[in-house]
């Protein structure tokens, strides 16, 4: 059953809309690719002035499933500019600019998209692109998803207390945004400009 694009976006990306998180990802199912393209273009027109972008990272016309990525380009650029993150992504096969140059967010997302579409294994480094702590992303990969100390929006390997505080903030945000949205507040109005 196809769910409304906007409903899925508000349910899955409220912390991004509220500028608590640099990015979010959700799966959207539709048989109408042209409608999805129109929706993405429409949301970019509405949300780009507030610092948000919407992009399809992966899609399959056979099973009608798409991975939609909602992100704050400036916040994601800051994550990707971190030297430790860059070193990690190089190890994962990403091409990055020379030292001292800021990474091109669009190019990095294109590389991630290719890995999502073409790699035999799921690219778990996607956690970095979602704003998860680098130590937790590395811990997940090294432990193959086991031996975590806490689990919520991601599996935690570093600081469970700090992670739980983030999980609680995200959950509270989701409740507030869902209530406002279902009471008629448009997504554009709920989106924080940053």
Summarize the structure.
52% of the residues lie in helices and 14% in strands. By secondary structure, the protein is α+β, with helices and mostly antiparallel strands.
Keywords:
9 helices, alpha+beta, 3-stranded antiparallel β-sheet
Describe the structure.
The chain has helices at residues 5-17, 33-47, 73-81, 83-91, 105-118, 126-129, 134-143, 160-182, 187-190; strands at 23-29, 52-60, 65-72, 150-151, 155-156. With 194 residues, the chain is α+β, with helices and mostly antiparallel strands. A three-stranded antiparallel beta sheet has the order 1-3-2, sandwiched between helices. Strands 4-5 form a two-stranded antiparallel sheet. Helix 1 (5-17) packs across helix 8. The termini are far apart. The mean pLDDT is 95.
What topology, given as strand order, has the largest sheet?
1-3-2
- How big is the Rg? 17 Å
Question: How much of the sequence is in beta strands?
Answer: 5-15%
- Unreliable stretches: none
Main sheet record: 3 strands, antiparallel
**What sort of overall outline do the alpha carbons produce when their principal axes are compared?**
globular
> Which percent range fits the helix content?
40-55%
Give the tally of β-strands: 5
The overall average pLDDT, rounded, is 95
Q: What is the N-to-C succession of helices and strands?
A: HEHEEHHHHHEEHH
Given the helix and strand composition, which structural class is it? Answer: alpha+beta
Count, helices = 9
Euclidean distance between termini CA atoms = 35 Å
């Amino acid at each position: 059953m196809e769910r409304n694009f906007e409903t899925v976006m508000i349910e899955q990306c409220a912390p991004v809309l509220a500028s608590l998180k640099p990015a979010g990802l959700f799966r959207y199912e539709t048989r109408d690719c042209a409608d999805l393209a129109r929706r993405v273009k429409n949301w970019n027109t509405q949300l780009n002035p507030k610092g948000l972008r919407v992009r399809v990272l992966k899609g399959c016309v056979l099973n009608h499933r798409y991975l939609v990525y909602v992100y704050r380009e400036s916040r994601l650029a800051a994550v990707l500019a971190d030297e430790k993150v860059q070193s990690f992504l190089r190890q994962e096969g990403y091409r990055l600019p020379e030292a001292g140059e800021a990474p091109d967010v669009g190019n990095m997302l294109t590389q991630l998209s290719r890995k999502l579409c073409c790699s035999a294994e799921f690219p778990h480094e996607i956690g970095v692109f979602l704003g998860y702590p680098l130590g937790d992303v590395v811990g997940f990969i090294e432990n193959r998803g086991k031996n975590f100390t806490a689990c919520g929006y991601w599996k935690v390997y570093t600081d469970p207390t700090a992670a739980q505080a983030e999980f609680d903030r995200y959950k509270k945000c989701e409740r507030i945004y869902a209530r406002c949205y279902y009471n008629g507040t448009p997504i554009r109005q709920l989106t924080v400009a940053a």
